[in-house]
Amino acid sequence: MVPVGNTATPEPLKPDDLPLGGNQTMAWPMEPETHTVRTGSRLNKVLLLRLDPEGFDSETKEHAVEGVVAYSAICTHTGCDVINWHPDSELLECPCHYSNYNPKQGAKVVSGPSPRRLPALPLKIVDGRLVVAKPFTGRAGFQQT
């Protein structure tokens, strides 16, 4: 995982690069062997948060590593980027139609028009760096009508 905007000289993120309880970091997955950053589709954009894992439900614990969770950054309602983080309520928010997601409960929808949760991207740590462990848990993006 490399931060969005840092693809010229990609340096994979470490858990300590993410502030505990701080704003989300937008990132792109990177192929470890070829160092190819997966920026070709905005559906690959991921948001990362580092939170206290004590409040995670069992499903979230399976996808997280050292308190770091990764979710698709694309709202499941109309495809806007989920860019707002509310540290007091610990909710992610899409600014387009105000869908709110709980990252400690698998990014389930807690309010707003989104029809489904944000897909999680399971993580692991290799050589101290955050690495994708498995594909997204669901289809990234939104359902066109």
Describe the structure.
- This protein has 145 residues and is mainly beta.
- The protein has a single domain, classed as Rieske Iron-sulfur Protein.
- Helices cover 4% and strands 26% of the residues.
- It has 1 helix and 10 strands, in the order E-E-E-H-E-E-E-E-E-E-E.
- The protein has one helix at 58-63, and strands at residues 2-3, 25-28, 46-50, 68-72, 84-86, 91-93, 100-102, 108-111, 123-126, 129-132.
- It has a 4-stranded antiparallel sheet with strand order 1-2-3-4, with no helix packed on it.
- A hairpin with a 5-residue loop joins strand 7 (100-102) and strand 8.
- It is globular.
- The termini are far apart.
| Estimated structural class | mainly beta
Series of H and E elements: EEEHEEEEEEE
Calculate Rg over CA atoms: 14 Å
- Per CATH, the class reads Mainly Beta
CATH homologous superfamily descriptor: Rieske [2Fe-2S] iron-sulphur domain
How many helices? Answer: 1
CATH topology: Rieske Iron-sulfur Protein
Major sheet size, sense and barrel closure: 4 strands, antiparallel
Mean pLDDT: 91
CATH architecture: 3-layer Sandwich
Number of strands: 10
Return residue spans where pLDDT drops below 50 for at least 5 consecutive residues: none
End-to-end separation in angstroms reads: 32 Å
Q: Share of helix among residues? A: under 10%
Strand order of the largest sheet: 1-2-3-4
Q: How many individual domains?
A: 1
Beta-strand content estimate: 25-35%
Gross geometry:
globular
Question: What are the SSEs and their pairings?
Answer:
Blueprint (H helix, E strand, L loop, with lengths): L1 E2 L21 E4 L17 E5 L7 H6 L4 E5 L11 E3 L4 E3 L6 E3 L5 E4 L11 E4 L2 E4 L13
